[in-house]
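Revision sheet: structure tokens.
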Amino acid sequence: MDSVTGMIYKRMQRAVLGVLWMVLLVVVLAGCEAEPSAVGTSSAKAPSKSAVEGTIVALGDSLTAGLGVREEKAYPAVLGEKLKANGYAYQVVNAGVSGETSSGALSRLEWIVSSLNPDIVILETGANDGLRGIDPKLLEANLDEICTRLKEKKIEILLAGMQMLPNLGPDYTSAFSSIYPRIARKHNLVFMPFMLEEVAGNPSLNQPDRLHPTAEGYAKIVENIYPFVLQTIERHRSK
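Predicted:
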């Protein structure tokens, strides 16, 4: 390589290095300027765990689990979003299990309490007891025990009442429906008389099986249960 060619080559190297340093400087400066903005946006949208005032666990069967709809359309998720939008820093956990009876809910209660550490439990169970014709006395005993254990742990309870289809006869349906208000009175609970109020029997709000709500049905459930949830939150806050 002659001296002229070598000189040109060195000048090209210096020029390339200069461009690379300029690019690197721009990237670093842009990152430094963007970082505070990104952090500010993140903290505004997602409060830290320390900002959560309480945990609400929705305990129930397929009506709570959201059988047949996407998870974000089941009532616990919709309720959580509504609370958040209205400034209530309560997280809602879906602890529904499809097909579960009140006996099943009782059997996993200790795990729910120890693992999820709820401040409030929305208790919805018993529909499968009724559909299977289980003795209403067993349902009442299970509900009584669940409420007793939760109250011992100082956990607030919102009891969601249920009604049964008339195909098992008037004596059964009457015995079934009378359980929930009796349990609510005994334990002094916030009580929603019927979980599926304005939803049950409405074809436009139920899936083809006529038993499980659609996404629109769950939206209606949240609309109806919301005042009872706020009442339960006030009880929790007053402790």
